[in-house]
Design brief:
The complex is a heterodimer of chains A (about 140) and B (about 230).
Chain A: E1 2-3, H1 5-12, E2 18-22, E3 27-32, E4 35-40, E5 48-51, E6 55-61, E7 64-69, E8 72-80, H2 84-95, H3 99-117, H4 136-139
Antiparallel strand pairs in A: 2-3, 3-4, 4-5, 6-7, 7-8
Chain B: E1 2-3, H1 5-13, E2 20-27, E3 34-42, E4 45-49, E5 59-62, E6 66-70, E7 78-83, E8 90-94, H2 98-109, H3 113-134, H4 146-162, H5 185-188, H6 200-223
Antiparallel strand pairs in B: 2-3, 2-8, 3-4, 4-5, 6-7, 7-8
Helix pairs in contact in B: 3-4, 4-6
The chains are: A alpha+beta (about 140), B alpha+beta (about 230).
Chain lengths: ~140, ~230
């Protein structure tokens, strides 16, 4: 599949939601939007990137976790952290990192605000008509 | 760079409705030729397929950091997805109608994760402000009967709902201002009163009742395990 690699590389240099050196092949791992980039230490360009949509984050041992994807649940990407705390922090961040999670959050908050105030909070952004933010999206 | 292409393809073709889809002409790199492709926008990814029935995308354009603009081109209804930086690629696309072009430009310019995150954070702030405004915080004089609280709730809320800038966060933490002077009791029992000639205090009172009712509904729904979503 072709993709705009230069832009993806540029994205890997953007401010990260989180970044750390996680063990097992000692990769520097950087979370930017819904991508998890992994670098060899001291290299500027990522070895690879994982798109974090439709994935499952599972705790593997006291301080490790794995990422697997819906279409191939057996294939796991393993990560080992320095501590249980770091592990929990990363697992939480990765679970919230998907576009789909953001979208569901938006729909939820919109609905809550609408119930509480009687007003649609998306109107001020001019996006209240967009199909992608309708409540039915939660049930899909 | 390695990419989890299977996951990408899965995301591209999953069952949930796309954020936008349709045929677009895509200018093939340096060559002038346009190729007609089936485009699917999902999240911050713009996939393109040989045709609408294909299960595997030919390619994907990751939309973070792009700008979308109209362009002068030989093709009608042309627009460009532009990226910053040296040797950055510009994708020139053309729709098949004015309406389709406008739809795509709008959808693509708001497709980034960054944009969505901004909106979500703003809504989180607003919700927090409304919740703390509505949850009778300690600063509000408890000695006053509920009617006064209705006015105070209303005065915290509009600032949260109408000020999308960071200022929206602060009203929730305003020290409770003196509630407006109470309207005489008789107006409380006339919700259908002459609102067109009502005083500001009367409107406060009337809407305050409505907000209180909504709030108690919400509090009840919060008490249930699945508090969110459509009842």
């Amino acid at each position: 599949m072709r993709y705009n690699e230069k832009e993806l590389q540029a994205l890997s240099r953007q401010p990260a939601e989180m970044a750390a050196e996680l063990v097992v092949k000692r990769r520097l791992v950087k979370l930017v939007v819904n991508f998890l980039f992994y670098f060899r230490t001291d290299e500027a360009e990522p070895v690879g990137a994982l798109l974090l949509e439709h994935c499952r984050i599972t705790q593997e041992e006291p301080s490790g976790f794995s990422i697997s994807f819906l279409e191939d649940p057996e294939r796991k990407y393993h990560f080992e952290c320095c501590s249980e705390e770091q592990c929990q922090e990363w697992m939480g961040a990765l679970r919230r990192a998907s576009y789909e999670f953001m979208r569901r959050s938006l729909i939820f908050y919109r609905n809550e605000l609408q119930k509480m105030t009687g007003k649609d909070p998306l109107e001020q952004f001019g996006i209240s008509g967009e199909a992608r933010f309708q409540l039915s999206g939660l049930k899909a | 760079m390695k990419l989890n292409e299977r996951s990408l393809a899965f995301y591209a073709t999953c069952d949930t409705p796309a954020d936008n889809e349709g045929f677009l002409y895509k200018k093939g790199g340096r060559h002038a030729a346009y190729h007609r492709r089936w485009f699917v926008l999902r999240g911050n990814m713009l996939f393109y397929f040989e045709d609408a029935a294909s299960r595997e995308p030919v390619g994907v354009i990751i939309l973070e950091g792009c700008t979308v603009e109209l362009v002068e081109a030989a093709e009608e209804f042309a627009f460009a997805v532009r990226f910053a930086g040296a040797r950055a690629r510009t994708y020139v696309l053309a729709a098949e109608s004015q309406a389709a072009m406008e739809g795509w430009v709008k959808a693509l310019s708001r497709a980034s994760f960054d944009y969505l995150r901004l909106v979500v954070r703003e809504l989180e702030r607003q919700l927090e402000a409304v919740r703390s405004g509505g949850a009778a915080p300690p600063r509000r004089p408890r000695a006053l009967p509920p009617k006064e609280n209705g006015c105070a709730v209303w005065s915290a809320e509009p600032a949260a709902a109408t000020a999308p800038a960071p200022a929206g966060a602060t009203p929730g933490s305003q020290p409770g201002p003196e509630p407006p002077p109470l309207p005489p009791r008789r107006r409380a029992s006339a919700p259908n009163g002459p609102l067109d000639s009502a005083s500001f205090a009367q409107l406060h009172e009337w809407y305050g009742q409505e907000v209180r009712a909504l709030r108690s509904q919400w509090l009840k729904s919060q008490a249930q395990p699945e508090g969110g979503g459509e009842a």
